[in-house]
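Long-time lurker. I teach an intro course on protein structure, and each term I like to show students one example going from raw sequence to a predicted 3D structure in token notation. This year I'd like something fresh instead of my usual example. Would anyone be willing to generate the tokens for the chain below so I can use it in lecture? Attribution to the forum is fine with me.
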Amino acid sequence: MKATLRDLEVGEIGTVSGYARGAIAYREKLLAMGLTRGTEFMVARIAPMGDPVEIQLRGFALTLRKDEASALIVERGSGHE
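-- Reply from a regular --
Happy to contribute to a lecture. Here you go:
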């Protein structure tokens, strides 16, 4: 099921499937941070107000602001802690 990173909950696993239209600046930034298509990640933490979101991928933690998280289209995977 496709969603944005902001739709996932702590403990969920997702795979990057694309980027939102019109988010060219965020797309370049996300690609530079290693969030290429097919990259699997896990949502580690979400701040109380939903901003920022911390994900674990490729052996490191990455924190994204809500606008960046909204620009990332993901495929929901399995998992909940």
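Some talking points for your students: Helices lie at 24-32, 66-71. The chain has a mean pLDDT of 87.
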